[in-house]
Inverse folding.
């Protein structure tokens, strides 16, 4: 198996894995990035969402061969506890989650939205996270948190 190169959270990485290895497995098992979650494994729940060249993609169904040379961003690439991304701060502020299992995927979908539309309407937010299932039913708080994040970014009080 030929080692392949990709960029993860701004860092070049070399991975020795079979080309059909799901990107989710590469992230978790080869690179130790455990923030991206395994839910259904069938591209149905969205908790494995990552950005691939800026687009939200379900990593459980994306083979390594499809992302060679691409820019991958996972939840670990958004921010840190010391320097959270506006979305992370807003989700904390709104307590937008119960178990939190869906949140890495939801924040990735929301980041893709805010990157292309900094002032989304509530219906645009709902559409952007429509592929992400939250089994805890935190939907209203999640919508409020994305609105808050857009406001934080607009005011320049978070990055
Ligand atoms: S684990 Fe990928 S969509 Fe559910
Ligand atoms: S907070 Fe539990 S699945 Fe969304």
């Amino acid at each position: 198996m030929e080692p392949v190169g990709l960029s993860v959270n701004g860092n070049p990485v070399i991975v020795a894995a079979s080309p059909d290895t799901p990107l989710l497995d590469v992230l978790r098992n080869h690179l130790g990035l455990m923030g991206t979650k395994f839910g259904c494994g069938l591209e149905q729940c969205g908790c494995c969402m990552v950005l691939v060249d800026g687009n939200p993609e379900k990593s459980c169904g994306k083979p390594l061969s499809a992302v060679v040379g691409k820019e991958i961003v996972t939840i670990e690439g958004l921010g840190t506890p010391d320097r959270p991304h506006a979305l992370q701060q807003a989700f904390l502020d709104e307590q937008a989650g119960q178990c939190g299992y869906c949140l890495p995927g939801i924040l990735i979908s929301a980041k893709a939205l805010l990157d292309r539309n900094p002032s989304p309407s509530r219906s645009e937010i709902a559409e952007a996270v429509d592929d992400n299932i939250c089994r805890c039913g935190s939907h209203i708080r999640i919508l409020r948190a994305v609105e808050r994040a857009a406001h934080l970014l607009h005011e320049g009080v978070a990055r």
Q: What stands out?
A: The beta strands are 4-8, 11-15, 49-52, 55-58, 71-73. Residues 27 and 121 are 32 Å apart (CA to CA). The chain has five helices and five strands. The radius of gyration is 15 Å.
